[in-house]
Every structure is written in structure tokens, then in C-alpha cells.
Design goal:
Blueprint: E1 2-6, E2 9-13, E3 17-21, H1 26-34, E4 43-47, E5 51-59, H2 64-72, H3 75-97, H4 105-111, E6 117-125, H5 133-150, E7 158-161, E8 173-177
Parallel strand pairs: 5-6, 6-7
Antiparallel strand pairs: 1-2, 2-8, 3-4, 4-5
Length: 181
């Protein structure tokens, strides 16, 4: 099992996962130091040697008003699409230049194999009053459809998920809240 903390969330990936914190990987850091403005997704993982996942985590609980425009105007979704794009560029570049034992070559090979599946997950936690469950579901649907449009060059398998929707989102992954400080 691989445990990864991101903000106030704990992701526990089962044994069928090969996953890591992408934005902390040395090859990503090398490229982002050279190419100003480069951004990467939070996690990259392969599940069951069949599916490659790009996972971006946003926890807006407590900051809903501050991030409302980012969500409603689509800025967040453009940012996610750009992070996926930059992450792919980094993986491909790393496969050519890295001399590290934990290089990203297996992920590059996966990206270039048309028989493999690629998915993008936006893990989005927000504050919603209990009585507006339908509004929450509608917002996630709109976000997913818009994000799908931004990523159609790569995959149509795009999901917007949260703790409440995890059962259908990430297989063999348990997500829980960490205590807020």
C-alpha cells in the first residue's frame, strides 16, 4: 500500500498501484526550474498495469468563496488541462534525459502505447450545505464535461471526484480527511 498526503487528504493506494507524487519528482523539479511556468499534476499512477492516471487534487473547503470564480469561469479546468500537458511533456523529456534509477521511462512507454488506457482525475473537495446535493452533482457534471473538452486531445476518460464519489472514481483507493491544523 502506498500512502500519500495532499493537503488535508490522505490517499491510500492498494497494491495494484504504482503511484508517486509527480510534482515532487526530481525530474519534474529539474524541468520546472529550467522552464518557468511549468506545472505538474499532483500524482501520476499506473493501476493494474493497464491504466495510467493523472490526478490533480484541489481542496477548496474553507475557501469556497475565494475559488468560486476560478470554478465558474473555467479557469481551474484550463489550469488542470495545462498541468496534464506539462506533465506529459516532462515524462517524455525525462525518458530521454534522466539518469536517475526512478526515471519516468515506464510512464513514457505507457503514454506511447495505444493499447493502454489513460484517465484524468480532478479530485475536488468543496463546501456544500447538505440540502443542495443536486446542485453539487450538477456542478461536478458541468466541470467534468468542460474538462473533457479541454482534454479530448488525450482522452475522453475524465472524472471529477470527491470523497463522496470515490467508489466509482479510483479503484482500490481509500481517501480520508486529515485533521485540520
Amino acid at each position: 500500500m502506498t500512502r500519500i498526503e495532499e493537503g488535508y487528504l490522505l490517499f491510500e493506494f492498494g497494491d495494484k498501484w504504482r503511484v508517486f507524487k509527480f510534482d515532487e519528482h526530481p525530474d519534474y523539479k529539474k524541468i520546472s526550474d529550467i522552464v518557468n511556468g511549468t506545472k505538474g499534476v499532483d500524482f501520476v499512477g499506473i493501476f493494474n498495469e493497464k491504466t495510467l492516471y493523472f490526478i490533480e487534487v484541489k481542496d477548496f473547503r474553507g475557501d469556497r468563496i475565494k475559488n468560486k470564480d476560478r470554478i465558474s469561469k473555467g479557469e481551474l479546468l484550463i489550469e488542470i488541462a495545462q498541468k496534464v500537458r506539462d506533465s506529459i511533456a516532462c515524462i517524455i523529456a525525462s525518458s530521454q534525459t534522466s539518469n536517475k534509477a526512478d526515471n519516468l521511462l515506464p510512464y513514457a512507454k505507457f503514454l506511447c502505447n495505444q493499447k493502454k488506457d489513460i484517465r484524468v482525475i480532478l479530485w475536488l473537495e468543496q463546501d456544500f450545505p447538505k440540502h443542495i446535493f443536486n446542485e453539487q452533482r450538477t456542478i461536478k457534471s458541468v466541470n467534468r464535461n468542460t474538462l473533457k473538452q479541454k482534454l479530448k486531445w488525450l482522452t475522453s476518460k475524465v472524472l471529477v471526484c470527491s470523497i463522496n464519489s470515490n467508489k466509482q472514481c479510483l479503484p482500490d483507493v481509500k481517501v480520508s480527511n486529515l485533521p485540520r491544523k
